[in-house]
């Protein structure tokens, strides 16, 4: 019983702290990878917190939102963008936003001289999309967001002038707006983008953020429990393509591009290949440079995680070990692109899982990133280069010890692409040790908990079980929760239940 009580307490704690945060940008359905091109709160345990002070500068791009990041994502004309909102910034647990958090959504843009330098606050903002309450289906925008796996979808106005922008998805949760004092909660973030277009229009009317909403506006004080329809206007009128001014488009993106020869990324951090070396000193120096970059990566990692840093660190370990073994020629696996790993929460992320099986002899030249035809736009290069592994297979993670309690057959290969199953195990992989039931490596409870496949990785605690037992086990967990009278509300339910819900299908952990 004590264990159960603790479990309840932990679950309750998680409910209380999990709100929502924008983490991942999709351009015409291509996943740009969590944190990439985004300005987001840098404190992990506060990353999902709402903004309550409507007059604060945080209203522009969120906590830490005045500071730019190194990457600017390229958007083709009239692109479809999706903004992923999640309850857990690192995707360690499922959920978009708590069901209690009902309210409208909107997307704003601001044209800027530099997407990296601009502080976001002040005038220049306009609204390109909004959704409030749908009387026909009796749903708030946030409820639709939950059904859509946390994806907020918007089309960029076709006539919008080419150039740099900050783009800002916004949710307003009204569940405490009727309280005294009122507590309307804004959840928002920004992405830095370059709109690659020859179009020339900009909206004539823009607003200031903060300033575009006031704490006394009826729309932020709206009582969702005793609603008086219609929902009042929130912020400025939508930009509908007319009422515009003509400007000169910026013809070429010059900031925030990923270097074509980057071999690994983590959010807005990247590393190029190490310089070649052939002496003991050269080797030691390369090792030091490599580990310095590793620290840089971990220190700059946003709350979305550091899987790219772990990949790079694994490479550094290989360099160091080779130096120690007297092999001074390197770097090992030169120019091999290390994949930014899953957990990527969508189908788009799955396209990334291809690399690494067949080394080609001819190193191809990488294509620079800003391809305007962006249905094929992807982070650098899975299909790109790969050279024949030089000597030792430095970049491979050691095989799991046969003596470990959850030992795999020795034939298992450690996952290099974040997938598990068949002949691949997560144990020792850079993505986390646990294999989820949909064959992804990770370290959160969805990977290591009752969903965990012990045959293809390490599972934790009482939840260790084999594939055959999975179904029985799930039934039991579910029944247990019910019989203990656990209210399934407030954003926490068993993943299987969520998975079977209509909106959950594509999450596929
Ligand atoms: Cu909340």
TrEMBL record:
<feature type="signal peptide">
    <location>
        <begin position="1"/>
        <end position="18"/>
    </location>
</feature>
<dbReference type="GO" id="GO:0008061">
    <property type="term" value="F:chitin binding"/>
</dbReference>
<comment type="function">
    <text>Lytic polysaccharide monooxygenase (LMPO) that depolymerizes crystalline and amorphous polysaccharides via the oxidation of scissile alpha- or beta-(1-4)-glycosidic bonds, yielding C1 and/or C4 oxidation products. Catalysis by LPMOs requires the reduction of the active-site copper from Cu(II) to Cu(I) by a reducing agent and H(2)O(2) or O(2) as a cosubstrate.</text>
</comment>
<dbReference type="InterPro" id="IPR001002">
    <property type="entry name" value="Chitin-bd_1"/>
</dbReference>
<dbReference type="InterPro" id="IPR005103">
    <property type="entry name" value="AA9_LPMO"/>
</dbReference>
<feature type="region of interest" description="Disordered">
    <location>
        <begin position="358"/>
        <end position="412"/>
    </location>
</feature>
<feature type="disulfide bond">
    <location>
        <begin position="434"/>
        <end position="448"/>
    </location>
</feature>
<keyword id="KW-1015">Disulfide bond</keyword>
<feature type="domain" description="Chitin-binding type-1">
    <location>
        <begin position="417"/>
        <end position="461"/>
    </location>
</feature>
<keyword id="KW-0732">Signal</keyword>
<keyword id="KW-0147">Chitin-binding</keyword>
<keyword id="KW-0136">Cellulose degradation</keyword>
<dbReference type="GO" id="GO:0030245">
    <property type="term" value="P:cellulose catabolic process"/>
</dbReference>
<keyword id="KW-0119">Carbohydrate metabolism</keyword>
<dbReference type="InterPro" id="IPR049892">
    <property type="entry name" value="AA9"/>
</dbReference>
<protein>
    <recommendedName>
        <fullName>AA9 family lytic polysaccharide monooxygenase</fullName>
        <ecNumber>1.14.99.56</ecNumber>
    </recommendedName>
</protein>
<keyword id="KW-0964">Secreted</keyword>
<dbReference type="GO" id="GO:0008810">
    <property type="term" value="F:cellulase activity"/>
</dbReference>
<dbReference type="GO" id="GO:0005576">
    <property type="term" value="C:extracellular region"/>
</dbReference>
<feature type="disulfide bond">
    <location>
        <begin position="420"/>
        <end position="435"/>
    </location>
</feature>
<keyword id="KW-0624">Polysaccharide degradation</keyword>
<dbReference type="InterPro" id="IPR036861">
    <property type="entry name" value="Endochitinase-like_sf"/>
</dbReference>
<feature type="compositionally biased region" description="Polar residues">
    <location>
        <begin position="388"/>
        <end position="397"/>
    </location>
</feature>
<feature type="compositionally biased region" description="Low complexity">
    <location>
        <begin position="358"/>
        <end position="376"/>
    </location>
</feature>
<keyword id="KW-0325">Glycoprotein</keyword>
<dbReference type="Pfam" id="PF03443">
    <property type="entry name" value="AA9"/>
</dbReference>
<dbReference type="GO" id="GO:0030248">
    <property type="term" value="F:cellulose binding"/>
</dbReference>
